[in-house]
Hints:
- The complex is a heterotrimer of chains A (230), B (209) and C (493).
- Chain A has 230 residues and is mainly α.
- Chain A has helices spanning 4-7, 25-29, 33-36, 51-71, 103-114, 116-119, 137-140, 144-152, 181-191, 204-213, 223-227, and strands at 154-160, 163-169.
- In chain A, a hairpin with a 2-residue loop joins strand 1 and strand 2 (163-169).
- In chain A, helix 5 (103-114) packs across helix 9 and helix 9 (181-191) crosses helix 10 (204-213).
- The longest helix of chain A has 21 residues, at 51-71.
- The radius of gyration of chain A is 40 Å and the shape is elongated.
- Chain B folds into 2 domains: 14-47, no CATH class; 48-204, Cytochrome c-like domain (Cytochrome Bc1 Complex, Chain D, domain 2).
- In chain B, the strands form 2 sheets. Chain B has a 3-stranded antiparallel beta sheet.
- In chain B, helix 2 (53-64) crosses helix 6 (183-194).
- The N and C termini of chain B lie far apart (62 Å).
- In chain C, 74% of the residues lie in helices and 0% in strands.
- Chain C has helices at 16-60, 73-104, 112-135, 151-170, 179-204, 211-244, 251-268, 280-292, 294-308, 312-317, 319-340, 344-350, 354-384, 391-423, 432-469.
- The longest helix of chain C is centred in the first third of the chain and has 45 residues, at 16-60.
- The two termini of chain C are 25 Å apart.
- In chain C, 64% of the residues are buried.
- Chains B and C meet through helix 1 and helix 2 of B and helix 1, helix 2, helix 5, helix 6 and helix 7 of C.
Amino acid sequence: MSDPRSENSNLPDVSDVPGQDGLSDDSLQSVHAQMLREKPEPKDGFSPIPILLLLIFSGLIVFGGIYMARYSAGFNALAFNETVRPDDVGEGGEGEAPPAPDPLVVGKRLYTQNCVACHQATGQGLPGVFPPLVASEWVLGSEQSPIRVVLHGLGGEIEVLGVSYNSIMPAFGPSTLNWGDGDIAAVLSYIRQEWGNAADPVSPETVAAVRAETADRTTAWTAAELDAFK
Amino acid sequence: MNNGPLIFFGIFLSLALSWLGLVVANNVDADFGGLGPHMDEATGMTVPAQMPGLARQGLRVYQDLGCATCHTQQVRREGFGADVERGWGSRQSVARDYIQQSRVMIGSLRIGPDLMNVGERIPLPEWHHQHLYDPQVNTPGSIMPSHAFLYEIRKVKGTPSPNRVPVRGERAPPDGYEVVSSYRSQALVAYMLSLKTPYDLPEAGSSDE
Amino acid sequence: MSDTSNQPTADPKVSGATEGVGRSAIDQSIRIPVLVLAGAGLLWLVWGTVLALIASFKLHTPGFFGEIEWLTYGRVMPASVNALVYGWGVNAALAVTIWLMARLSRSELRHGGILITAAIFWNAGVDVGHWGILIGYSTSVEWLEMPAYVTPLLLVAYIMMGVWGVLVFRYRRNPHTYVSQWFLLAALFSFPWIYSVAQIMLVFAPVRGTVQAVINAWYVQNLIWLWFTPIGLAAAYYFIPKVLGRPIHSYPQAVLAFWSLIVVAGWSGMARLVGGPVPAWIISSGVVTGILLLIPIVITAINLHMTVMGNVREVWNSPTLRFVVFGGIAFTAAGLIGSITSLRTLGVTTQLTHFTSGLTHLGFYGFFTMVMFGSLYFVVPRLLDKEWPSASLISLHFWCCALGTAIVVGSLFIGGINQGLQMNDAGAYPEFIDIVRNTLPYLLSRTVGVILITLGQLAFFTSFVWILLRPRTGKVTDPTLFDSSSALKSFAP
């Protein structure tokens, strides 16, 4: 095998370098071919950091300080809202009472959180499975039956707009989620005026009266029982 | 910068700073890592309540199936996104809501909807079983994978099984067969039903009641 | 081979050829451990990408591959992430770290058996661990889904390698420490700390409540910024000036970039939790440090850009540099985008959407993986004393991976921003299923990108196996460049 170095005249001549007497041709032959054309190891240049950049970075640090001062809510571990000032946290909002919320807004929120799964956001229900609330005679009639349904649930066959359904509506009253009178009134008022429905809103007092009347009830209503209140 | 020990010390100090400030400090903070349940004076209940045992098993099923890769369990505050408007919760989720969960899976990507309050939103076990068995029936066009492997299709022998699950749609079994839930799917659905926060906490700000 | 270990290689009077002899000796000694790690890494890369491809399909076509339990998205996605991060990522990182540390410390390998044993332990652990995820023992902790029983094995394996790396640095023969060595030290030191803290406080003795989320975010961010980023930067800081034959533009800038990165990176992960059930001050600290990360990102970009400036033709022509500089550009992009989306006003839209996946892909694949490809294109010929067999294969690899990454990142960014805007608009998009439907085209194009990436990686794997198997000629040969015209003949790839 010929000496690889002799084929490539770009290589430095090692024999001129002091201290290389101990190296033989054989040992140099076993050097990787790539080593012989590799550039030297990288070195450091010493350009300074541009002043403009240093100014910008100082600006970033100042921004950071201001941001932390404004949005850390006093480093309070119970503060989850960064826009709230430090002294307003953890006391349940003492001070002026918040303005009374619009029942229809409350009703819509409750409906969206609890009823859409079955009755859908459009109020159309699921054909053959969950009855619609749109133009439903049960919704638009007397409020006595919807209040009872929400309080204690509904089971068994029921006919809505000529179609028969046989499913289970869970209760939201004292036996389970224990919705308050205001909540039940709000959600019923909401469904009675949404999607083209136009019936009177339901008041919390009416709900309270029905609750008192049915205080002993523990089981779900059936359509036959509710017929009396339609 | 040629002094090895100095470089080492600098690296150590820098990492120690974030470790102390974020990991250690929060863990020992009584108001974060040391949070306990809160006693609600109005109802006399401590919230959040302990998860029922089956729901705890369901958490492990949720964990092993990797549900957290698609679903989050965190409701962001009003004004920051539209989570509350969407009906995913009535208020922002706070740290105390999670103290009863052994594995906190707040998730990091919403390929599917948020599940923090799904037990309140959909309190029906049948809905959840249907959704796990064939998501296309409840939400057509869904990209949620079917978890039919959690169920068994069996021939009805005499009385139907107490664990049978009513399923509809294309994948409903033919007459004479029933879909029976397994322990894992029952646990998972129990976990789904336990996901709710029907209480207020002082640190969460007031909801609109 | 003569014993060159006593030569004072720091002495500027010693010629390049003797340095070359010394380097050659180091490379010969370190050959087996680095090749084992590189080979293992490549196998994981191919397998992890197959899993990622399945996951990508499953996202828009859930019925793909049927309803096999262990292939549901929730299992195959974490399995692919763990295979790529701990299988490919750590193996490649360690291969390049070991090689760089040995070279820059001018020491030959001692006790190579330790490294090989450690490599076997590590890969056995990741193998068992990722199957554990697929069969149903996932911990469901982000990026730590591998079951607890593999953790001790992984830690032991890593400590063996980490201690070796630190010792090589301790007994280095050159008095001047180069930039890359600081970054490698930081990485070697940080990983066991963050990994063991995360494992203890999340998996073995889980802490209470959302402190788990805080520690998880701390771990993931530190893994990216204190393990993968320093190693990628160390490689870039070495290979760019080395192959171009120019000095690094600025040493003071490198010092500033290093310290600002190390100090700030650990806190920046908290911006991932924006809007979450975590105290507001923690998130704010993440936002601030996320912005402060601009300092090391901008400085590094300037430093590397000024080193490259004027030599674009050489960069384009060299396989090593084409990949490494692509990675450097991706680093700058990922860093800038990550910093800016730390701000709450932008985070509210990008949080919890596909955007964050795209950003992770840009950083882990576009930056780290491409830099590792470039590094391996430099290192492997030197270990084997052979040249890459085909410049066309390298070109295919580059174009498939570069285009694939661009498609994946672009799809996820656009799809994610759309998703975020729609999610935050409950009035116009009340039904979540509509938002899901709107992301489907982007998920489809992402799959196309992943297919391209798979092709490119198969090309690389083919090159690797080919160069392993081809015979050694011992002649001085030209490097495998994209365009081997005579003007660039004396140029090291």
